């Protein structure tokens, strides 16, 4: 495989067509890149090439996202996606890798780490929340919805899934000068992937974030017990996960390397060069 080029691949995983992006040599140390919501592996399209000279980077589209299939029988929950990641990495023969944790991919990735700590060489954490006491103000509206009956909660979340809401998610709370550098491709492309079935799946995942709060202490216990080498790169202009959410990781990972960048939730769009440089420096020391 030619270094620096991203290859766009598909594999059959238990009857599902799974799309993934891959860069770097197959015998290089691996980095697994689970994406966030409402995105896909497209999130990592620019992050992968400059690191492919020394590492193998793999970014799958989760079932029901991006170019992957949306099978009816799949378990579209955090546990279901964890099962998927475990089977996907086994299919590719990955025995150990650096795990990138971002957005809802951080919840899924940490469940995999708890289940299979033998797979984890190190962590890169970027705007992924696991500390309830420092969640940002944007969570207030979600918590208000969660207080309603499950039926009404789901209906309200489902009604709110729109292209305009995708745009708000991608722009989040970044300052205007930075917002102007975030390409509209992010929300127009990912909205084009949304079918009625996928909107329903997304609504159930968002509703499931309430129960996922109960997992936060388990994620923290994993970090405290295993202490994997960890790089934290964070965009604090994030209404869901502000600066305090990043610093909270130091409670359980006091030796983690923390960098607060001038960016927001999707900092690979605005702070790519810094993120790549910090990743390279960290991985050279810990690969």
From TrEMBL:
Gene3D superfamilies: alpha/beta hydrolase (3.40.50.1820). The keyword Hydrolase applies. It comes from the Bacteria. InterPro entries: AB_hydrolase_1, AB_hydrolase_fold, Haloalkane_dehalogenase. GO terms for molecular function: epoxide hydrolase activity. Pfam families: Abhydrolase_1. Keywords: Hydrolase. Transmembrane segments: none annotated. Residues 29-271 form the AB hydrolase-1 domain. PANTHER family: AB HYDROLASE-1 DOMAIN-CONTAINING PROTEIN, HYDROLASE-RELATED. This is Pimeloyl-ACP methyl ester carboxylesterase. It comes from Phyllobacterium bourgognense.
């Amino acid at each position: 495989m030619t270094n620096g080029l991203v290859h766009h691949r598909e594999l059959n995983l238990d009857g599902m067509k799974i799309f993934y992006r891959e860069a770097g040599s197959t015998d290089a140390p691996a980095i697994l890149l689970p994406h966030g919501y409402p995105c896909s592996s497209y999130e990592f399209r620019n992050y992968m090439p400059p690191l492919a000279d020394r590492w193998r980077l793999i970014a799958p589209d989760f079932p029901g996202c991006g170019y992957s299939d949306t099978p009816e029988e799949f378990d579209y929950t955090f546990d279901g996606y964890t099962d998927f990641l475990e089977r996907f990495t086994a299919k590719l023969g990955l025995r150990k890798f650096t795990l990138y944790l971002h957005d809802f991919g951080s919840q899924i990735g940490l469940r995999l780490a708890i289940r299979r700590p033998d797979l984890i060489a190190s962590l890169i954490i970027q705007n992924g929340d696991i500390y309830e006491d420092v969640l940002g103000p944007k969570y207030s509206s979600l918590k208000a919805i969660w207080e309603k009956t499950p039926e009404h909660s789901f209906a309200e979340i489902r009604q709110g899934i729109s292209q305009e809401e995708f745009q708000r998610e991608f722009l989040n709370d970044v300052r205007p000068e930075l917002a102007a550098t975030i390409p509209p491709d992010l929300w127009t492309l990912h909205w084009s992937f949304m079918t009625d079935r996928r909107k329903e799946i997304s609504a159930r995942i968002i509703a499931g974030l309430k129960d996922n709060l109960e997992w936060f202490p388990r994620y923290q216990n994993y970090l405290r017990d295993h202490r994997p080498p960890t790089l934290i790169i964070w965009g604090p202009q994030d209404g869901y996960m502000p600066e305090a959410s990043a610093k909270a990781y130091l409670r359980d990972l006091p030796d983690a390397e923390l960098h607060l960048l001038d960016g927001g939730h999707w900092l690979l769009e605005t702070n790519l060069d810094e993120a790549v440089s910090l990743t390279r420096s960290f991985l050279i020391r810990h690969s």
